[in-house]
Design brief:
This protein is α+β, with helices and mostly antiparallel strands. The chain has twelve helices and 18 strands. It has an eight-stranded mixed beta sheet, sandwiched between helices. Strands 13, 14, 15, 16, 17 and 18 form a six-stranded antiparallel beta sheet that branches. Strands 9-12-10-11 form a four-stranded antiparallel beta sheet, with helices on both faces. The longest helix has 19 residues. The protein is globular and about 60 Å long. Bound molecules: adenosine-5'-diphosphate and magnesium ion. Adenosine-5'-diphosphate (ADP) binds next to β10, β12, β13, β17 and β18.
Length: 373
């Protein structure tokens, strides 16, 4: 029955260095969603932040051919979950409701999608959405603050420090001194709030470091400097709200010196090994740790927890958490669930169910207070 269908909007594209990656993820998600179960509105967000829908939207977004698409928006009015169409009639912009949405699946990576900003807007709109809320999303997004919290829990992290763009620009010598205190070379320099390895440099000497700091500062006000190791990369998928579960671990064998943007998306020689070839004992430790990390930063729905294994010492370190991990059908997050017995399409159904459950739980929170005095 049509009336029982879940009204679902899938968001993709977005104002982020990972715009293209999001289009790839959304292509896979949209191709498996069950039309019997969902009424689907695909919404593409341009690199300038304009929300659009219409026929063949994915292809048009890929070609940046926006002319025939319709502008849409959500209003920040709790109780009104309508998607509105924005029309230009005689030079006047008018809004008309298109459909009342039950849930949104943001298939958006990086800034303005995975970092808590969109989540904040959806909270204001009072609408259910897949994945972490404002807190989990924003903490996972900032590699510096995230590591501060990991340290607080005494979870293993490599040495690091965070510097600001202003420090790099106004005081490069002091910044280099601070960076060299972190550890010997190589050092990894990263924008604190980004993903897909955009803006990251592996620095082997002071001149790399000088360049790497300025390069990372192009992409963020905050830059993290990390001790670099010769690493194996082990990842675990976590799924759930209050009682999250961990998948089997997988290993990435990058095609280049490290898992750079090109190794991730351009050169397809990087390999995923599932399950990762590590001891049963370490697998169990990591699965428990992945769930603890997920809970520590208040994740919900899903997240991929990434670890670095030092090839020399065989010790492991928490690298980062991605609250909206790559989601093509050959991406690690869904592949790990597939290997753990949950196929791609069922995983998406589960995520939508978790989003609706979490919203129902939030609706039990009292927001008004009147003193009896
Ligand atoms: N401290 C480190 N030591 C060794 N390799 C690292 C280190 N930090 C990052 N890398 C490499 O760089 C890649 C990207 O870093 P990561 O922190 O995961 O950022 P992103 O959010 O862009 O994926 C990792 O997958 C790994 O290959
Ligand atoms: Mg990463």
């Amino acid at each position: 029955m049509d009336t029982k269908k879940i009204q679902l909007a899938v968001l993709f594209g977005g104002r982020s260095g990972e715009h293209e990656v999001s289009l790839m993820s959304a292509t896979s998600v949209l191709s498996v969603l069950d039309n019997e179960r969902y009424d689907i509105t695909p919404i593409g967000i341009t690199e300038d932040g304009v929300w659009l829908t219409g026929e063949d939207i994915l292809q048009k977004m890929q070609n940046r051919n926006y002319a025939s698409l319709t502008r849409v928006t959500l209003l920040p009015n709790p109780g009104d979950s309508s998607l509105y169409q924005i029309e230009d009639i005689d030079g006047k912009q008018t809004l008309s409701p298109v459909t009342a949405l039950d849930v949104i699946f943001p298939v958006l990576h990086g800034t303005f999608g995975e970092d808590g900003t969109l989540q904040g807007y959806l909270e204001i709109c009072d609408i259910a959405y897949v994945g972490a809320g404002v807190l989990g999303a924003s903490v996972a997004m900032d590699k510096g603050l995230f590591k501060d919290i990991m340290r607080q829990y005494q979870f293993p992290v490599l040495n690091y420090t965070v510097v600001t763009r202003t420090m790099i620009e106004n005081n490069p010598n002091n910044t280099i001194h601070e960076a060299e205190m972190v550890s010997d070379y190589p050092l990894f320099i990263k924008p604190a709030n980004l993903g897909s390895s955009v803006g990251i440099t592996k620095c082997y000497n002071r001149s790399d470091l000088y360049e790497g700091l300025h390069f990372a500062a192009l992409y963020d006000r905050r830059v993290i400097i990390e001790q670099g190791i010769n690493a194996r990369e082990i990842e675990i998928s976590v799924l759930g709200n209050e009682d999250p579960k961990a998948s089997v671990p997988g290993e990435i064998v990058p095609a280049e010196d490290f898992y750079s943007y090109d190794a991730k998306y351009v050169n397809d020689n990087s390999e995923l090994v599932i399950p990762a070839r590590i001891s049963e004992e370490t697998i169990e430790e990591l699965r428990i740790l992945a769930v603890e990390i997920y809970k520590a930063i208040d994740c919900a729905g899903m997240a991929r927890v990434d670890f670095l294994f030092d090839k020399e010492s065989n010790r492991y370190y928490v690298c980062e958490v991605n609250t909206i991990p790559g989601f093509t059908n050959i991406s690690m997050y869904p592949k790990l669930w597939d290997a753990s017995g949950l196929p791609y399409a069922s995983l998406i159904d589960e995520l939508i169910k978790l989003a609706l459950e979490r919203k129902a739980q939030k609706d039990n929170t009292e927001h008004k207070f009147r003193s009896n005095a």
